[in-house]
Design goal:
Layout: H1 15-21, E1 26-30, H2 36-44, E2 49-53, H3 57-64, H4 75-84, E3 87-90, E4 101-104, H5 119-131, E5 137-140, H6 148-158, E6 169-172, E7 191-195, H7 198-208, E8 215-217, H8 221-252, H9 256-263, H10 287-296, H11 303-328, E9 338-342, H12 357-367, E10 371-375, E11 381-384, E12 387-390, H13 396-400, E13 404-407, H14 416-422, E14 425-428, E15 441-444, E16 450-451, E17 460-462, E18 469-471
Parallel strand pairs: 1-2, 1-4, 2-3, 4-5, 5-6, 7-8, 9-10, 9-13, 13-14, 14-15
Antiparallel strand pairs: 6-7, 11-12, 15-16, 17-18
Helix pairs in contact: 8-10, 8-11, 10-11, 11-12
This protein binds ligand SAJ.
Ligand SAJ binds at residues 175-179, 231-232, 235, 239, 273-274, 276, 279-281, 283-284, 346-347.
């Protein structure tokens, strides 16, 4: 919250600053997705009158009915804000003219050619331009490449004849929302803010201070854009590293889960990341590519980003190979085998399947001729390559007729003990199944299979994918 005893020397003396100080400023949020709805509700609960803007009638109706379609935003909070008159939603973008502060929280995906797709930002900006008036603060929250706010938004807004830094203000502030995170929300997640000038930075800092406990100001909008990309590149590269360690452990006959778990006992200088079937979500797989794309135009190759992207994108193929090797060890082919994939969401306890690696795992198994079904309590149906799948229940009966269970997403809601006891063969890409309860055979992401008391006799053979001789070591019998 702003410190009233130490006024910000850069804070411009203007009506907007006054309305922020007395909490009468009107706040418009463009894009009511998992970022925008959470942000709107956080300010509404602080008594700011918030108007959410979305092109999706259904979202607008849900909000105005006091309901939430974002699992991390409680319906009760939305209802209370609507009831209190501090939260409303509309599709009428002309009403942006009524707003004092406008946050743009629209998707920034990649195009088919893996270049930044800024069409959503462009559409939102067009609406802002049409409604622009003196005294407004415009903040871009959507993740983008360093320089975009200053190089693209500022000239566009100034075409309206208004001067940024005196008539209007412009800043960038990256969204930081971790879907499914029960501990950190909008109010207690520090907010980074960078302005195209000192006045914009100060007024944006003052505004966010209304609802967010800690606001961290950086020297420019480009710096704030880069902060976000560092955060997400950090995750992509470290996940890529631990996935490459999984590939190394596969060749060394080591269980990568054991290796990472042991390394994580180091109390300093190490941060554990979990190897898995790949990288999903609409941020981590994509955001770093905004950075490498920008740097290529500055004649620099962001090698870590490109390597991590390659390794992470390869993991679904690796999991498919692992399934083939596990079935082969039981003299079964993938073709004709019934395979149950547990989890299609991109990570545990969320309902989002965007960029989910499980989809590529399923695609590969179907292409190899398997009879694939999936179970995911958060995802009722899923279309992959024009084929509609419907989630099945994880029952003892389903497990008993399954030739191989593939763990792709480690939702807490799955009956992991039942899976361990009833599944005849498991490939666990998330280290989710309790090994000590396995009755039959479990293949971790890498390393020797784990044999339960009811496992078939150990076999040896040659893995057709790699010609590596495999055998189930005696210590696992
Ligand atoms: N993953 C791994 N191993 C790990 C961590 C994650 O394989 O050790 C996978 C996940 O299963 C998932 C993908 O990576 O498929 C991304 O997971 P994530 O939690 O890193 O990413 P998001 O998109 O759910 O949320 C992240 C935020 N999460 C965390 O910081 C923990 C944060 O980085 C951003 O605020 C947010 O993306 C965003 O919107 O940029």
């Amino acid at each position: 919250m702003q410190d009233a005893t130490h006024p910000d020397p850069h804070l411009p003396a203007c009506d907007l600053a006054d309305r922020i100080a007395d909490r009468t400023c009107r706040y418009g949020v463009i894009g009511l997705g998992y970022v925008g709805l959470a942000l709107a509700e956080a300010f509404a609960r602080r008594g700011i009158r918030v108007l959410g803007f979305d092109i999706d009638d259904a979202k607008v109706s849900e909000v105005n009915a006091g309901r939430s379609y974002i699992p991390d935003v409680q319906a009760g909070d939305v209802a209370a804000a609507v009831e209190a008159g501090t939260l409303e939603a509309t599709t009428d973008l002309r009403r942006l003219a009524e707003m004092d502060v406008i946050s743009i929280c629209v998707p920034t995906p990649l195009s088919k050619s893996r270049d930044p797709d800024l069409s959503y930002v462009d559409a939102a900006l067009k609406s802002v331009e049409r409604a622009l008036r003196p005294g407004q603060l415009i903040i871009l929250e959507s993740t983008t490449y360093p320089g975009m706010t200053q190089e693209v938004l500022e000239p566009r807004l100034q075409r309206q004849g208004l001067k940024v830094g005196s008539d209007i203000w412009l800043a960038f502030s990256p969204e930081r929302v971790d879907p499914g995170n029960q501990r950190f929300g909008v109010a207690n997640t520090p907010k980074v803010v960078g302005g195209v000038d000192a006045g914009s930075a100060a007024i944006a800092t003052a505004f966010y201070g209304i609802a967010i406990e800690h606001v961290h100001r950086v020297s420019s909008a480009a710096a704030a854009e880069m902060v976000k990309l560092l955060e997400n590149t950090f995750r992509s590269v470290n996940i890529g590293l631990v996935n490459e360690v999984a590939l190394m452990c596969d060749r060394l006959g080591l269980d990568v889960g054991e290796i990472v778990e042991a390394a994580a006992t180091k109390p300093y200088g190490f941060m554990a990341f979990e190897p898995g079937p790949g990288l999903g979500g609409h941020c981590i797989p994509l955001d770093p590519i905004y950075l490498s794309w920008k740097l290529r135009r500055l004649d620099y190759t962001a090698r870590f980003i490109e390597l991590a992207t390659e390794i992470n994108a390869n993991m679904p193929r690796y999991v498919g190979e692992r399934v083939a090797a596990a079935l082969n060890a039981q003299s079964r082919a993938v073709r004709g085998s019934r395979i149950l994939v547990l989890g299609v969401a991109y990570k545990r306890d969320v309902d989002d399947t965007r960029e989910s690696p499980a989809i590529e795992v399923i695609r590969r198994l179907v292409e190899a001729g398997a009879d694939v079904v999936y179970a995911d309590p958060y995802v009722e149906t899923l279309t992959i390559d024009d084929r509609l799948f419907a989630s099945v229940a994880v029952t003892a009966e389903e497990l008993a007729v399954t030739d191989c269970v593939v763990v792709a997403t480690d939702h807490g809601a799955f009956p992991w003990s039942d899976v361990a006891r009833h599944a005849r063969l498991i490939v666990d890409a998330r280290d989710a199944v309790p090994r000590d309860e396995v009755r039959h055979v479990l293949w971790p992401l890498s390393g020797p299979a784990v044999l339960g008391p009811q496992a078939p006799a150990p076999q040896t053979g040659t893995d057709p994918q790699t010609d590596r001789v495999f055998q189930v070591p005696r210590e696992n019998q």
